[in-house]
Write a structure and sequence with these properties.
Length: 223
């Protein structure tokens, strides 16, 4: 896939850009990181592909988060995946979201103990908003993508996960209502953290199985 474009500036603002290891010529004025990402995504979609990796000056960015406003950078490298591999990217994003939520819980465990109950509640509510993110990302994966797990469909598993989140949130809210920050910290450690760890492990298993299946498919098609 040729990403070069005749008549466009080769390195607008002296920014070197590649897409799937090919040099990309940027349109004039596309100097901001968001502008470059938007342009790269349009090129990817035109080739029936999706943007999977975006690295700025050698540092990969989390594409599931809004891009931070980076004033100075000199190189952007991007990689794409064919649409057929989109579920694999969704699993990667879901795992990142689960890991980020777990890190927030681990930070909150200490912070709730050294703050007043009102501040501790705000810390918990910030964490609570992150719990559903990986499950909602998983809901974008086609129902027939994953095989049954012990006779249970992927759709049913996601439904149970959302129900579990609702139960966990109610339990931690009750700990908040007690005005005892030790109870809140215990709830985070014994209810929220184990659930996130289990979810992360489950997503990783799906990811590894999907990746292995894709590699086997490529190997078989080349025989």
């Amino acid at each position: 896939m040729n990403h070069a474009n005749t008549g466009l500036s080769e390195t607008a603002g002296k920014i070197f850009v590649t897409l799937d290891s090919e040099t990309v010529a940027l349109p004039l004025g596309r100097n901001s990181l968001n502008a470059i990402r938007s342009y790269l995504e349009s090129l990817a979609l035109a080739g029936q592909r999706v943007l999977a990796v975006l690295a700025v000056d050698g540092c990969p960015l989390n594409l599931s988060l809004p891009l931070a406003d980076k004033k100075e950078f000199c190189r952007v490298d991007a990689e794409t995946l064919p649409l057929a591999e989109w579920p694999l990217l969704l699993l990667t994003i879901a795992r990142q979201q689960a890991d980020r939520a777990r890190a927030s819980v681990e930070t909150a465990l200490t912070l709730v103990l050294i703050n007043n109950p009102a501040t501790a509640r705000e810390l918990w509510w910030h964490v609570a908003c992150q719990l559903k993110e990986p499950v909602l990302t998983l809901s974008l994966i086609p129902e027939n993508f994953c095989p049954l797990c012990d006779g249970v469909s992927f759709h049913q598993l996601r439904r149970w996960q959302l129900e579990q989140i609702a139960v966990i949130v109610r339990q931690v809210d009750a700990a908040c209502d007690s005005q005892d920050n030790i109870q809140l910290s215990d709830a985070l450690e014994k209810r929220v953290l184990p659930w996130l760890e289990k979810l992360g492990e489950q997503i990783q298993l799906w990811h590894d199985a999907t990746q292995a299946g894709a590699r086997l498919g490529i190997k078989n098609s080349s025989v």
